[in-house]
């Protein structure tokens, strides 16, 4: 196998792995292939007007900030993928902390990085487990 065949095989494996994800559109698959192979033509979806840069960090959001949070998912503004919570994804995929992410897109401190339904579910579970229930009037060491 020569170098050209090996690179084609690698591109095919990368594109196939990407295509196996349930949240990827056909246009995104084609655009990935074209980026990896150096083709410049893009699909109409990729040519759609991009949202203006929202942050002082100069990053362009992958989708409008207003659409980044739904009831069940919070979407990464870096790549557009949806999650229940972003913290691990931001660190692993983009090398960012939550504070760096908020700064890059000029997001308020209150901007949720966890899906609202997931946050409520975890809070209800914590209450059921008895977490957060303590008497603030009792001093440690006094009984």
Automatic annotation (TrEMBL):
Domain of life: Bacteria
Composition skew (Low complexity), residue ranges: 44-60
Region (Disordered): 41-60
Pfam families in the record: ROS_MUCR (PF05443)
Similarity field: Belongs to the ros/MucR family.
Protein name as it appears in the record: MucR family transcriptional regulator
């Amino acid at each position: 196998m020569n170098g050209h065949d090996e690179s084609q095989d690698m591109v095919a494996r990368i594109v196939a792995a990407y295509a196996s994800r349930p949240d990827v559109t056909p246009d995104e698959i084609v655009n990935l292939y074209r980026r990896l192979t150096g083709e410049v033509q893009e699909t109409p979806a990729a040519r759609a007007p991009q949202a203006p840069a929202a942050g002082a960090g100069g990053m362009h959001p992958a989708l409008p900030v207003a659409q980044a949070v739904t009831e069940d998912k919070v979407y990464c503004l870096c790549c557009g993928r949806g999650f229940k919570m972003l913290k691990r994804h931001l660190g692993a995929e983009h090398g960012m902390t939550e504070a760096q992410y908020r700064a890059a897109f000029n997001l308020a401190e209150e901007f949720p990085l966890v899906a609202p339904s997931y946050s409520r579910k975890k809070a209800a579970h914590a209450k059921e487990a008895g977490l957060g229930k303590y008497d603030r009037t009792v001093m440690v060491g006094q009984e």
